[in-house]
Amino acid sequence: MNDPKPSATEIRGFLHLDSYLRKKHGTMPVILHLLEPLTGIELAKKLEIRLHEVEVIFVNGFVQDLDTVIQPGDRVAFLPPGCPGPYRVALGFYGKNQKNASNFKLSK
Questions:
Q1: Could you count the other beta carbons within 10 Å of the beta carbon of residue 43?
Q2: I need a labelling partner for 8 at 20 to 30 A (CA). Which of 27, 46, 53, 106 fits?
Q3: CA nearest 56: which of 27, 14, 2?
């Protein structure tokens, strides 16, 4: 039986998470060679990013919540809270990840 071959997963951060990842890993993007899928939460923990510092993630260019499964070889970016309102709508994460305490809450 063949062992799974690791795939390069490209990871970036926005705002202060960019400088955090650069300082911690010395490069941007950070490249992790994953053997199996993991969630955004698991990836954040692996990178030692505190969950309250992440509002949403981008996976292959699409906004996702932290529970999204990331496949080896995906491109991932972590976005912290604080993005201004119009950009939230334009980027597509205005209503994403509502169960995350760090996310802007929609009022009904």
A1: 23
A2: 53
A3: 14
DSSP state of 28: S
CATH number of 8-90: 3.10.20.30
Spatial CA neighbour of 53 closest among 72, 39, 34, 66:
66
Whole-model pTM over 0.85: no
Can you tell me the distance from the alpha carbon of 62 to that of 91, in angstroms, rounded to the nearest whole number? Answer: 9
How far is C-alpha 74 from the geometric centre of its chain's CA atoms? 11
Model confidence over 4-54: pLDDT tens digits? 667 899 999 988 999 999 999 998 999 999 999 999 999 999 999 999 999
- Between CA 45 and CA 40 the distance in angstroms is 9
